[in-house]
């Protein structure tokens, strides 16, 4: 019997990972990777850091941790896998079990036979059908070639005005990189919030305000109509349905689409999301063909629905599963929580599971909480703030999702919550986790524990809350109420809601001044973070006040003008 | 009916937290805190950071996040709780339900009646019975008074040689603080490892080597016999059973003992650990008396055994439970994982659950893994290494515990694992968690996922491993074997095991040079971190080699001379 032939189409992330694992499990297999580009196994996620100069050399994106470049030779010598670069898979003959390829340099066409085939064709950036995309200074950022072109432009040091189209992960990472190079950055987004589908609108508003304070300009809910250029063919402006933004550099990052043509032509099932459908074994509708990475859809572990969320971590973790299975094993990849994290302009941002909107759209009754506090003890010099939102199911207390952002370590709390959600935890269980505490790392009661406790307080009837957004709506509607600010006087003087319904009673004075608070009006208590206003709410409730709410997240999470 | 009387003995951390929660839940209750010291509600964990100057003002340890000092007035005005400082609880009359107290200033004695009593008497540092403890320059570090005294000494700026007795959490944090002040630090420890009971010996050895490289000197397995001083009564040396260490400053931090005298005298049940026994509701053997914080024992959630692990996070989280229960609620505190974290000399250190030794002592059959790698993508400028050890139960795959250390973010991985253990996760489940990935935060496959995957590989028979400690023993025994180093030549030239059984074959050359590797000998493959040696093991196994192991953790985790 001849050696098992494993053929992998795609040499960026998922393909090489599957190859490496298959090799370790099946030493005798003949493993071939087919890649249409010149480069293989590169760290696509590193591109924004290459632009900013944080990654100093282009080659670093292709190196192992021990400094060896991951090229064809590396794969052959260290992994015993053959890599055919600049070779495009044109079609799959499932009956003969062979892939028809073309050498893009020589034009040679031939067939590569397989016993097990792996499709790791990834995704390509979606480019909106607008005029002017061919102007000089207009780039996308998906392939290292793109990064190198932008880097060449940036290295000229002309600085100037950059416009990024798309306020998703790549858009905000790119903005961060360009701002580090002292470019002036605008971000245009079709949706009316940044990070649509990632953060709920309330969290996105807070983040947008913080990033705006750092100097990024957002043009939300605007559709790009065309790009304008000068007579030399250099881009000069981005024209949207609401105005014109000057631009010397444009980066288009409005998302990606799975490369499924090869699979579709071969008659493999394409899912409703538009990506290749696979089962838990990452098998396509043909049991001898597996698919993984950015070209497949995944099962969302909370909703059970199919979703298309192309992330590098799935490509890598799925590589292990596919590597096992093409080598005769039986591994599974159950699904994802669409956990996504991002660093931009000093802010750490993360999310996992379902957003409130996603949960409500799926028919869940939800209880949310918003906690705003420090990631470390406030007396530790490196502390930073984290705003965390927890989305839970009413009745069961099951955690459905979480979002967090701030200059503090928001991402650790997202990872903890992702672990809890994976295990089907309730808020009680999340609140009970024995997390590590020491002043350089956390507070005695951690951010995620606080967020869980707020849900418990709400469910127990101890805390009625209102979100900044809801309070703003009430203010704009002209509702009759008292907005009771319980911060200190210096804090109040520095920054406050400009509204004649606002009344200051410092928390420490509330018990003795309680008669100054009207009993016949709705009361909304506010403070900086939400902690003192909750305390004040309990004091008022204890004194018989009935219609009292406090504003979750506090004024630090107030996304409007102050 | 008169208001419910809640009396709390102890005003440091657990007591005030219980009081604050009780107030929020029971607005009408009469809440009294009795504290024998002058200071209340202080951040004891912040003391090492006050010594180092990272916390610039003593008062910061007593402030709320919004800058209000937590004193008697604060508790009365903001929380509606009465605080009696410098008032000592002398005895409890359970029949009459009153606490007999003495005002330590006036000498006045009186009884404070209670409906529900809370004991939060904390712990006091254990001071070993040695000569010379009264010499000038000898301190403990448990109370802010201690911190202030040491700070006064340090502020004289005399520098010099400090000896810390005890290599536990406080000992290593204190060493970190003193080294920041350019003192020369030695640490004496009775056990033959640092962080005994916290880390397994193998992890402790690696950490001790790293900290030694930073300049700390460890004297392990040495018993302090006495402290010597000069004619002016200043300490000059620490004398152990093995020698004399010069010292101008001595900090004794050999652990704490629960303050249980009051409870014992009142006839309350004291547990086998020597701390007050409580049920899940944190009720003592008297249903009207609750206890929490450093004076109680807890249930270990993995072993189910009672343990005494006094940590600030338990004091705080238990405060919520006791606050609820004394106010008529029904909250529970199920137990702990003894999660502990620490920062010292640039290293982040953490542990949760059972150590390997603890697990084996309890009769578990365990499978462990050691993963050594980067906390972020290696091309990101802020990456650091993390060495993580996972302890799992053979057969079930249940995670029993984890330890991690390194200049990278070890603590995040401990928090994730603690969450997994709380939920009873197996290694498969830990490996499946959808953790957030982006280059500033993690690698596409996270440290904890890798650690879980190594266990899976071992269980699947893909990887036989040996620990550095085991290899050292084999080397010392003179075992016949080949130690196959598969790193690059420059790496090998820079630093390697000096042993004539070592043979270099660079991983990339292994396939073509495989005949140079003897087939009749035991082979131990080594590399820098363990990644390449695992790859080489699979290559050798694939080529028919049978007796092959790789060294987990790599040479970076080699705790001996190189």
From TrEMBL, chains A, B:
<dbReference type="Pfam" id="PF07992">
    <property type="entry name" value="Pyr_redox_2"/>
</dbReference>
<dbReference type="InterPro" id="IPR036188">
    <property type="entry name" value="FAD/NAD-bd_sf"/>
</dbReference>
<keyword id="KW-0285">Flavoprotein</keyword>
<dbReference type="InterPro" id="IPR036873">
    <property type="entry name" value="Rhodanese-like_dom_sf"/>
</dbReference>
<dbReference type="InterPro" id="IPR023753">
    <property type="entry name" value="FAD/NAD-binding_dom"/>
</dbReference>
<dbReference type="InterPro" id="IPR050260">
    <property type="entry name" value="FAD-bd_OxRdtase"/>
</dbReference>
<dbReference type="InterPro" id="IPR016156">
    <property type="entry name" value="FAD/NAD-linked_Rdtase_dimer_sf"/>
</dbReference>
<comment type="similarity">
    <text>Belongs to the class-III pyridine nucleotide-disulfide oxidoreductase family.</text>
</comment>
<protein>
    <submittedName>
        <fullName>NADPH-dependent 2,4-dienoyl-CoA reductase, sulfur reductase</fullName>
    </submittedName>
</protein>
<keyword id="KW-0560">Oxidoreductase</keyword>
<dbReference type="InterPro" id="IPR001763">
    <property type="entry name" value="Rhodanese-like_dom"/>
</dbReference>
<keyword id="KW-0676">Redox-active center</keyword>
<dbReference type="Pfam" id="PF02852">
    <property type="entry name" value="Pyr_redox_dim"/>
</dbReference>
<feature type="domain" description="Rhodanese">
    <location>
        <begin position="477"/>
        <end position="559"/>
    </location>
</feature>
<dbReference type="Pfam" id="PF00581">
    <property type="entry name" value="Rhodanese"/>
</dbReference>
<dbReference type="InterPro" id="IPR004099">
    <property type="entry name" value="Pyr_nucl-diS_OxRdtase_dimer"/>
</dbReference>
<keyword id="KW-0274">FAD</keyword>
<dbReference type="GO" id="GO:0016491">
    <property type="term" value="F:oxidoreductase activity"/>
</dbReference>
């Amino acid at each position: 019997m001849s050696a098992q032939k494993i053929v992998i189409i795609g040499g960026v992330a998922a393909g090489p990972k599957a190859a490496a694992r298959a090799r370790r499990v099946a030493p005798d297999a003949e493993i071939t990777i087919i890649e249409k580009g010149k480069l293989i196994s590169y760290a696509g996620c590193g591109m924004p850091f290459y632009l900013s100069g944080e990654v100093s050399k282009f080659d670093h994106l292709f190196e192992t941790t021990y400094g060896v470049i991951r090229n064809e030779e590396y794969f052959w010598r260290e992994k015993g896998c053959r890599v055919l670069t600049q070779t495009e898979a044109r079609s799959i003959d499932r009956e003969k079990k062979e892939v028809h390829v073309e050498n893009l340099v020589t034009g040679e066409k031939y067939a590569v036979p397989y016993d097990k085939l792996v499709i790791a064709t990834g995704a390509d950036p979606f480019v909106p059908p607008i005029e002017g995309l061919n102007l000089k200074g207009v780039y996308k950022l998906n392939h290292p070639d793109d990064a190198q072109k932008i880097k060449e432009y940036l290295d000229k040091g002309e600085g100037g005005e950059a416009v990024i189209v798309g306020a998703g992960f790549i858009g905000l990472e790119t903005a961060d990189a360009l701002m580090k190079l002292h470019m002036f950055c605008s971000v245009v987004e079709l949706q009316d919030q940044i990070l649509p589908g990632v953060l709920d609108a309330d969290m996105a508003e807070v983040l947008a305000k913080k990033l705006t304070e750092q100097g990024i300009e957002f043009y939300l809910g605007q559709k790009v109509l065309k790009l304008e250029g000068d007579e030399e063919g250099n881009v000069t402006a981005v024209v949207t349905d609401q105005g014109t933004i000057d631009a010397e550099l444009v980066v288009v990052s409005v998302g990606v689409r799975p490369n499924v043509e090869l699979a579709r032509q071969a008659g493999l099932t394409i899912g409703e999301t538009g990506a290749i459908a696979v089962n838990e074994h990452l098998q396509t509708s043909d049991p001898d063909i597996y698919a993984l990475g950015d070209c497949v859809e995944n099962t969302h572990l909370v909703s059970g629905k199919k979703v298309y969320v192309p992330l590098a971590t799935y490509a890598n973790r799925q590589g292990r599963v596919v590597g096992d299975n093409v080598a005769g094993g039986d591994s599974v990849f159950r699904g994802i929580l669409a956990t996504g994290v991002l660093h931009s302009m000093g802010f750490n941002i993360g999310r996992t599971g379902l957003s409130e909107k996603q949960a409500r759209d799926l028919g869940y009754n939800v209880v949310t909480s918003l906690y705003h506090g420090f990631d470390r003890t406030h007396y530790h010099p490196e502390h930073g703030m984290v705003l965390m939102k927890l989305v839970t199911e009413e009745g069961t207390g099951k955690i459905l999702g979480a979002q967090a952002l701030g200059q503090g370590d928001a991402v650790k709390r997202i990872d903890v919550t992702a672990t809890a959600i994976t295990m089907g935890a309730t808020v009680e269980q999340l609140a009970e986790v024995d997390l590590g505490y020491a002043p350089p790392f956390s507070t005695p009661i951690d951010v995620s524990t606080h967020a869980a406790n707020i849900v418990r307080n709400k469910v127990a009837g101890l805390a009625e809350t209102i979100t900044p957004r809801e309070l703003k709506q009430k203010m704009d509607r002209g509702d009759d109420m008292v907005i009771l600010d319980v911060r200190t006087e210096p804090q109040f003087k520095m920054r406050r809601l400009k509204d004649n319904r606002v009344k200051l009673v410092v928390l420490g004075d509330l018990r003795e001044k309680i008669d100054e608070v009207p009993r016949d009006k709705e009361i909304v208590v506010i403070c900086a973070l939400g902690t003192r206003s909750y305390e004040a709410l309990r004091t008022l409730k204890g004194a018989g006040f009935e219609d009292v709410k406090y504003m979750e997240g506090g004024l630090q999470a107030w996304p409007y003008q102050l």
